[in-house]
């Protein structure tokens, strides 16, 4: 079965999908994207992902080329054209093709690209063991709330952890936790779940919202506020959240154990509740 992707109005084998070299996505990284997890062939939290797409597009002044209903239909079609029950749907909108000039050109058509990859969530063994992370100074720009395809900072920071075989790079800016190179971060201290607020320094994660929603509904003690580097380094638990990692425990940070070096009790409870939440969501969508 050839891998079918969507480009500017057509589904085609990936080998046939070509973008002109003057696409501003290629030249400037001028575009935004989304990644929607699909479980049992149904998109999870689609409305929220489409809302965030609209937010990113508004911020960089690209008119959304599709209505939510059109996006939903495109996603349903690409899911249909792939075998897997669980898929990760990537789609991006770039400003389009124009002679190279920094200012936004007028009257060009955005380039729309969508692909599906198998959704690989952490294995039970990894959930059980937790993962290693390192930390670094967050030197990215001040618009981290935009889900931009310009990910050079994120890629460079992620590579630091890849270099030492760690799963993520946890980031601090001016002595405060922001997020990780491709995940949001929660900590637990004295049974309180802490995470930084959604501002311009972090990506407003869809999984972040789900975890907070579950935590509040199940009466975890939650504080959304600035979290200091010291609080992270002395945390009882650290969690990563993202659409593909779901909720994952960090068991070492910069080579030192987090808490007792094992996924903690609140993580275990949250992980189970997250799985349950997904199941219920899928049943409701059926
Ligand atoms: N922060 C960053 C920098 C990300 O790239 C991502 C997505 N991979 C997240 C947080 C988590 O967002 P979501 O839960 O919507 O996947």
Task: Tell me what the structure shows.
This protein is of the alpha+beta class and 286 residues long. It has 2 domains: 4-118, D-amino Acid Aminotransferase, Chain A, domain 1 (2-Layer Sandwich); 124-284, D-amino Acid Aminotransferase, Chain A, domain 2, CATH 3.20.10. Helices cover 31% and strands 29% of the residues. It has helices at 24-28, 46-59, 68-80, 124-129, 152-163, 206-217, 229-233, 265-285, and strands at 4-7, 10-13, 31-39, 42-43, 87-94, 111-118, 131-137, 168-173, 176-180, 184-189, 192-195, 221-224, 237-242, 246-253, 256-257. Strands 7, 8, 9, 10, 11, 12, 13, 14 and 15 form a 9-stranded mixed beta sheet that branches. α6 links the parallel β11 (192-195) and β12 (221-224). The longest helix has 21 residues, at 265-285. The radius of gyration is 19 Å and the shape is globular. It starts with a strand and ends with a helix. The model has no long low-confidence stretch (mean pLDDT 97). Bound molecules: 4'-deoxy-4'-aminopyridoxal-5'-phosphate.
Please sum up the structure shown.
The protein is an alpha+beta fold. The protein is 31% helix and 29% strand.
Helix content: 25-40%
Q: Which strand-content bin applies to the residues?
A: 25-35%
> What does the average pLDDT come to?
97
CATH class of the largest domain: Alpha Beta
Can you identify the CATH superfamily of the largest domain?
D-amino Acid Aminotransferase, subunit A, domain 2
Number of strands: 15
Major sheet: size, sense and barrel closure? 9 strands, mixed
CATH topology of the largest domain: D-amino Acid Aminotransferase, Chain A, domain 2
Report the order of strands and helices.
Answer: EEHEEHHEEHEHEEEEHEHEEEH
Overall spatial form: globular
Instruction: Give the termini separation.
Output: 27 Å
Q: Name the ligand types.
A: 4'-deoxy-4'-aminopyridoxal-5'-phosphate
Unreliable stretches: none
Structural class label: alpha+beta
